[in-house]
Amino acid sequence: MGQKVTVCRTEHFNAAHRLHNPAWDDARNAKVFGKCNLPNYHGHNYELIVKVTGEPDAETGYVMDMKALSDLIRELVTDQFDHRNLNTDVEVFRQLNPTAEHIAIVIYDILRPHLPQHLELKIILYETPRNAVEYPA
Ligand code: NI
Predict the structure, then answer these.
(1) Catalytic residue, candidates 12, 42, 83, 114
(2) For residue 119, what are the CA distances in angstroms to 1, 7, 40, 52?
(3) Domain coordinates of the chain in residue numbers?
(4) Residue 36 CA to ligand 1 centre (angstroms)
(5) What is the CATH number of domain 5-135?
(6) Is 120's pLDDT higher than 90?
(7) How far is the centre of ligand 1, averaged over its atoms, from the C-alpha of 70 (Å)?
(8) Can you tell me the distance from the alpha carbon of 114 to that of 31, in angstroms, rounded to the nearest whole number?
(9) What is the per-residue pLDDT for 2?
(10) Strand locations in 1-41 (E)
């Protein structure tokens, strides 16, 4: 057929984080990150949309089996992030400020090797209903 289609799977996780740059003093951290820098962490209800683009398979008519995609996201991402403190419980964020931008890049890098090479991947992550990031840009 030759037409590309994007399939989208929405998942959800709750997690705590704190935005902080250890190279800066407290005043600069407070100025840049505001309440997100408060020392005792705070939570977000993250809405994750995983978009996979490719041509529908000639035999199945699917770009990708959505159950397989959902299982992959749950196993590799939401089971690891949900109800966790991202800064302390998720290894990669011990050294990486867990902004929505960084979380989206990390999720992309986790999922990319598990998807067929010919399919394109995009991550949209809502940190609040009004703030979202998209990667790749
Ligand atoms: Ni926050």
Answers:
(1) 83
(2) 16, 11, 40, 6
(3) 5-135
(4) 5
(5) 3.30.479.10
(6) yes
(7) 25
(8) 39
(9) 84
(10) 5-17
55 part of the active site: no
Length of the chain: 137
C-alpha distances in Å from residue 93, one per residue of 27, 32, 50, 58, 135? 22, 19, 21, 41, 18
pLDDT grade, residue 1 (50/70/90)? low
Q: Which two tokens stand for residue 113?
A: 């090797």
Q: Exposed e or buried b for every residue in 93-103, given b needs 16+ CB within 10 A?
A: beeebbbbebb
Question: Is 127 part of the annotated catalytic residue set?
Answer: yes
Q: Tell me: the pLDDT tens digits for 40-71?
A: 999 999 999 999 999 999 999 999 999 999 99
Rounded to two decimals, the pTM is 0.96
